[in-house]
Amino acid sequence: MKIRDIILIGVVLAIAVSSFVLVELFKQDGSYVIVTLGEGENRHEIARYSLSKDGEYSLNGGTNVLKIEGGKAWMIEANCPQNDPQSCTKHSKISRVNESIACLPNNLVVTVYGDDMGENNPDIVLG
Amino acid sequence: MKTKKVAFIGVSIALAMVLSYLESQIPIFAANNGFKVGFPNLVMMVVLYKIGWKETVLVSILRIFLMFFCGFTRDITGLVLSLAGAVLSLLGIILLKRTNLFSCIAVSVVGGVLHNIGQIIAVCIWYQTAGLALELPLLLISGTIAGAIIGYVSGILVKKLDKLKF
After folding, report:
1. What is the DSSP string of B65-126?
2. Per-residue pLDDT reduced to its tens digit, A51-73
3. In a domain, B155, yes or no
4. Which of B34, B132, B134 sits opposite A23 (nearest CB)?
5. Percentage of residues in chain B with pLDDT exceeding 90?
6. Cβ A16–B113 below 8 Å, yes or no?
7. Count of domains observed in chain B
């Protein structure tokens, strides 16, 4: 390793760590999740659940089971092989705005939204 | 000489496939959001340093398609995401190596980070969900670590294969 290797790796690591810190700092607690399904242009909302109400929800005809408890949401079941390291059930719990869990095989995405999310709550934006 | 090269490329593709299968069977990275060391990239680094960039592209892309046609890739989404990561990371490591300014550890770190950037861009487009980009910062950190490990080991391998000439 030469000095410029260390500089290059240092710069990459600095960008990575600072972007991580920035993103963490500006995350806000969300209030509900929206589940969307479909590829590309066909993506549409199939369900929305409040994060303040605990419960277990079967999604997409039972391919995935979403659990909400204590203001956090996570996937407890999915019909992909359980040892799949990329399985959505391995994803950490989500609770803050824009955090998402994607179930790749089923084209299903769960995303957290806040109270003031314009696109999905147009009334509030106009107000 | 040409036969030797063809044989080496063939073995490289086979090795990359085996490594990629092995990695998918190891659940140690279970408690994470998609972090992988990327064992097959070890092969790409060695091929890049022992033969050249064209062969590296060949081995990388063929590995991905062969894994898909053999049924190891989950579905077409998996194929698209693999390709997105591979294309960006190949571009990065090939160009950076050509500058002759950096050692293979730095080259591999850039490759690892670009691989994750390529995949996240593809995921955001494929799922039309920009919020998935929030996964990126953590993947940048893991990509740096994974790239450093791969770069370090490939440096040792290239040195050990010193006598092998094409």
Report:
1. HHHHHTT-S-SHHHHHHHHHHHHHHHHHHHHHHHTT-S-HHHHHHHHHHHHHHHHHHHHHHH
2. 998 999 999 888 999 999 999 99
3. yes
4. B134
5. 67
6. yes
7. 1
